C-alpha cells in the first residue's frame, strides 16, 4: 500500500487527479469512489494477489481500463489488464528474498516516470 500511496501522491502533485484505494478496503465501501472513467493502476509483484484479483471483475463491469504493474507478465492480473508494465525482476535484494526491496524500488520508479 505504501508504494501505491506514494505513486498516487506523485501523480496528484504533478497535476494528474489521483487517489489511492487499498484492495482490502475496496469491497467495504471504497469502490464507490471509482467512476467508469477512471484509469486504474493495479500493483502486484506476483500478479496473483487475491485481493486485487477479486477486484478485476467489478472494475471490468464498471468499464474501467486497467494498467498492471507486475513482475509476472503471464499472471492472471496481466492477462486481465489493458496494459502491462512488467518489472523483470529476478529477486529481492533481501538475503532471504522476503522483504520487498527491489520490487518496491522498481515500482516507484515506474510511478515517477508515469507522473
Automatic annotation (TrEMBL):
This is Arabinose 5-phosphate isomerase KpsF. Residues 1-115 form the SIS domain. It comes from human gut metagenome. Signal peptide: none annotated. CDD domains: SIS_Kpsf. PROSITE patterns: SIS. Gene3D superfamilies: Glucose-6-phosphate isomerase like protein, domain 1 (3.40.50.10490). GO terms for biological process: carbohydrate derivative metabolic process. The lineage of its organism: unclassified sequences, metagenomes, organismal metagenomes.
Amino acid at each position: 500500500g505504501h508504494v501505491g500511496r506514494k505513486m498516487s501522491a506523485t501523480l496528484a502533485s504533478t497535476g494528474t487527479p489521483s487517489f489511492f484505494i487499498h484492495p482490502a478496503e475496496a469491497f467495504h465501501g471504497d469502490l464507490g469512489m471509482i467512476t467508469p472513467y477512471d484509469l486504474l493502476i493495479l500493483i502486484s509483484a506476483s500478479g496473483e494477489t487475491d485481493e486485487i484479483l477479486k477486484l478485476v471483475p467489478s472494475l471490468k463491469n464498471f468499464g474501467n481500463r486497467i494498467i498492471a504493474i507486475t513482475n509476472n507478465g503471464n499472471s492472471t492480473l496481466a492477462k486481465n489488464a489493458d496494459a502491462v508494465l512488467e518489472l523483470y525482476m529476478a529477486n529481492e535484494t533481501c538475503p532471504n528474498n522476503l522483504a520487498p526491496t527491489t520490487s518496491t524500488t522498481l515500482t516507484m520508479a515506474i510511478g515517477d516516470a508515469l507522473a
